[in-house]
Known about the structure:
By secondary structure, the chain is α+β, with helices and mostly antiparallel strands. The chain is built from 5 helices and 10 strands; from the N terminus they run βββαβαβαβαβββαβ. The strands form 3 sheets. It has a 5-stranded mixed sheet. Strands 1-10-7 form a 3-stranded antiparallel sheet, with helices on one face. A hairpin with a 5-residue loop joins strand 2 and strand 3. Helix 2 runs parallel beside helix 5.
Amino acid sequence: MAVSSPVCDFGWKAPDFTLPGTDGRNWSLSDVAGPNGTLIMFICNHCPYVQSVIDRIVRDAKALQALGIGVAAISSNDSVAYPQDGFDEMKAEAVKHGFSFPYLFDESQEVAKAYDAICTPDFFGFNASLELQYRGRLDASGRQAAGPDVKRELFEAMKQVAETDKGPVEQVASMGCSIKWKAA
């Protein structure tokens, strides 16, 4: 079932974390943070919304890193119920798509809860002070990728954050598969 992320809570501070990456190292928020901002993305391997745009995510992440934006992706899905989202599968996904950013495993789901992540993909764009400035979508894609000339909403918003420390007032919520929470 498709769900949408809430609107941006401008100024909300990024919660810290330390999570294992598919590259074999542990990453904290300060390790990921860039001098001009930080993008934290909640994604997973199996979601059709993520898979339809994964190449665009990789493209835009590289372009944002060149602008001094730190980037990380986090998978928080229950990997027991969804084994395709397990850590070994995450490693393969990062290699397959040439991730230029750390892909982190939130096995406890505590980081997703701290960020109030709702769906995959769910994008959190912070300024240099780690204050939320963007909680919108990548672009107009859904379960299927939009056309090749679609506006790059996430990229343009984070470029604005890098240049001005502020995100756009108008933002369209991201939509995707719900986070797959563990049974209580």
